[in-house]
Specification:
Blueprint: H1 2-26, E1 45-47, H2 56-59, E2 63-68, E3 73-74, H3 79-100, E4 106-109, E5 111-112, H4 116-132, E6 136-141, H5 147-155, H6 157-162, E7 163-170, H7 195-200, E8 204-212, E9 215-218, H8 230-239, H9 265-276
Parallel strand pairs: 2-4, 2-6, 3-5, 6-7, 7-8
Antiparallel strand pairs: 1-4, 8-9
Helix pairs in contact: 4-5
């Protein structure tokens, strides 16, 4: 009597598994369209400082980290799936921030996986305009950087002077390519660094990572050290002039007609008439 019940239960499980396999592997639903992120909104960043760091014109040279984290890429079949991706991006970003904070404040934008070039270039531009305030910076990444982001380092001489190089986050030295493979027009990373970084061998620094609870963290022997950017800051102090504080928009000035007591418009009109006569 028990065998038919077992067969029925087994058949029901098989049908459920077949339906799940069909929905998730064989014929999954299409990816949902994600609205372009607005990087003036802090919710579009997986990591961003709670308080804005001091600008270079008040506290002198310091270094930020602009983090491109593969886990911050957003792509999902449903709204619920997208929420899970965002939550994972924020947790992964904070874990990497723990290790990179020895460099300085960390900024890690989320981005649409299918529009990584557009999103990261907009995020970087937003970082420069709203958050950087003349500070030096490095770019840390565990994935290939789009040309649209690297182009900023090519076109802004002042920006290039403040750029402290790339941190390549990977479990094994050189195992991650920071430029898109197969692109014949891609320039070497050294072309984006100042000569002093290339000469010192610090244009591209390999930073070791490890897995912890399914997430990526900096390894104990990451090679980063306790004060990794001190030589770069020393170079900036000796060779680069900090940005001056922007004046901001000029306010409209109201011109006031200052007159002596009794000097009215009526009296001035009478004087003009007498001169004509």
């Amino acid at each position: 009597m028990k065998k038919p019940a077992v067969w029925i239960a087994a058949a029901a499980v098989a049908i459920a598994l077949s339906a799940l396999l069909w929905r998730t592997v064989i014929s999954p639903p299409p990816y949902i369209e994600i609205t372009p992120l607005s990087y003036s909104d802090y919710a579009s960043w997986s990591v961003i400082p709670k308080e804005q760091p001091a600008p270079v014109w008040t506290d002198g040279w310091a270094v930020d980290v602009f983090l491109v984290n593969e886990a911050s890429g957003l792509k999902a079949h449903s709204g619920k799936g997208l929420d899970k991706r965002e939550q994972r991006a924020r947790l992964q970003g904070r874990l990497l921030e723990d290790g990179l904070s020895v460099v300085g404040p960390v900024y890690a934008p989320m981005f649409r996986t299918d529009a990584i070039g557009d999103d990261l270039s907009r995020a970087f531009e937003s970082y420069l305009k709203q958050h950087n305030r003349g500070r030096a910076f490095i770019i840390a990444s565990d994935t290939a950087l789009p040309p649209s982001l690297l182009a900023f380092l090519d076109t802004e001489p002042d920006l290039n002077e403040r750029f402290g190089g790339f941190y390549r986050l990977s479990p094994a030295k050189g195992s991650v390519a920071l430029v898109e493979t197969g692109d014949a027009t891609a320039k070497p990373l050294t072309s984006y660094c100042g000569a002093h970084l290339v000469d010192d061998g610090t244009c591209v620094v390999d930073v070791g990572t490890a897995r912890q609870g399914g997430y990526k963290v900096l390894a104990e022997n990451s090679g980063l050290g306790a004060a990794p950017v001190t030589p770069f800051v020393d170079w900036l102090k000796a060779n680069a002039a900090p940005m001056a504080e922007p004046l901001g928009d000029l306010e409209e000035v109201e011109i006031v007609d200052i007159r002596k007591p009794g000097d009215t418009d009526e009296r001035r009109t009478k004087k003009k008439k007498k001169k004509r006569n």
